[in-house]
Design goal:
The structure is a homodimer. The first copy, chain A, is α+β, with helices and mostly antiparallel strands. Chain A contains six helices and ten strands; from the N terminus they run ββααβαβββααβββαβ. Chain A is 30% helix and 24% strand. In chain A, helix 2 packs across helix 3 and helix 4 crosses helix 5. Strand 10 of chain A pairs antiparallel with strand 7 of chain B.
Chain lengths: 193, 193
């Protein structure tokens, strides 16, 4: 049983190295990407959508050329455990999701996924054993038609200097940058020489 | 000249492998992470903020344990070319940004960054040469106090089944999942057996 071009064990090693720990969701995410790749429609360039920021973006980034920084991976905040790959021009795509109808076959996965047990009550060996045993068995596949404009990163467009902070920013944001318009997460900023 | 634990050339190889191409912004991003790491305040656990989704998240993901999927990397959509690392409990942090006051020393970088030239008019060798020569020289450092609540990923909280699609979703989103409330990017969905 492989996950894309890696053996299961190699994939787990890559997960630990990139993600910092062996998250159950990221192991399932590996099977999701693998299943999606086996069901891609025709096309040359595929962009990705994760329907949650939790775990799944790292499966996509580990296993495909799509990353957050290159703009080929988008995240929509639906909190659904699903990954879509779509042909970037036509929008034709495949969506793989964790199928709640199949969860009862793997009770430890079900209880983890539906948060029926606290982390301290989970049996990690049993959970990872069931995830591996299930493989694609927890998943279902849909054909989807994506509207790429709804998910794709907008181009930055013309840039100018913010009159408040002096940094370059996208002029489409207004007369000053969004940080200086009040969205800043910083309560204090001090220059360091 | 190193970029964190990599030689400059090793870092470029990792960029090409992960990001798919040698983006100027991601090379500068490597120097930004390197400079930030040399100026971290005291603390054990640092979370990251990128102030743009363009390129910089990949520098953070390549060079630190912070990823989108593990939640230690957040993106705020300010379109400023800046990366912050902050101690996850105290919010004490260091912010590194591309300092527009320093751009005139590196005119090819300036013209690329401020979009003064079309891509076809850029001299890639000169651009990458100036980026490498500049290193930290394009950047400035600030001490910042971060309000972690403003950037950190919210916990999913209790989950239930969406009455429309049947998939699990965060109950905080309402009576159905956000996809089925109308935010969907899919114009058609068809099950595949």
């Amino acid at each position: 049983m492989n996950i894309c071009k890696y053996s299961y064990e190699e994939y787990l090693d890559r997960v630990k190295s990139f993600h910092g720990n062996l998250a159950p969701g990221l192991v399932i995410g590996g099977f999701m990407v693998d299943l999606a790749m086996k069901n891609l429609p025709k096309g040359e360039f595929f962009d990705a959508i994760c329907e949650t920021p939790v775990c799944l973006p790292d499966a996509v980034q580990l296993l495909t050329p799509c990353t957050i920084g290159n703009g080929w991976l988008s995240i929509v905040p639906f909190g659904r455990f699903a990954i879509t790959f779509y042909e970037k021009y036509t929008g034709e795509g495949v969506r793989v999701y964790l199928d709640t109808k199949k969860l009862n076959n793997w009770p430890e996965v079900r209880d983890w996924y539906l948060k029926k047990k606290k982390k301290s009550e989970q049996d990690a060996d049993l959970l990872f054993g069931q995830i591996r045993e299930a493989g694609h068995g927890l998943l279902s596949v849909q054909k989807v038609q994506v509207d790429p404009e709804k998910v794709r990163r907008k181009k930055t467009g013309p840039v100018g200097f913010c009159p408040v902070c002096g940094e370059a920013y996208p002029l489409r944001d207004g007369d000053s940058c969004r940080n200086c318009q009040g969205e800043t997460p910083y309560s204090s900023v001090t220059a360091v020489d």
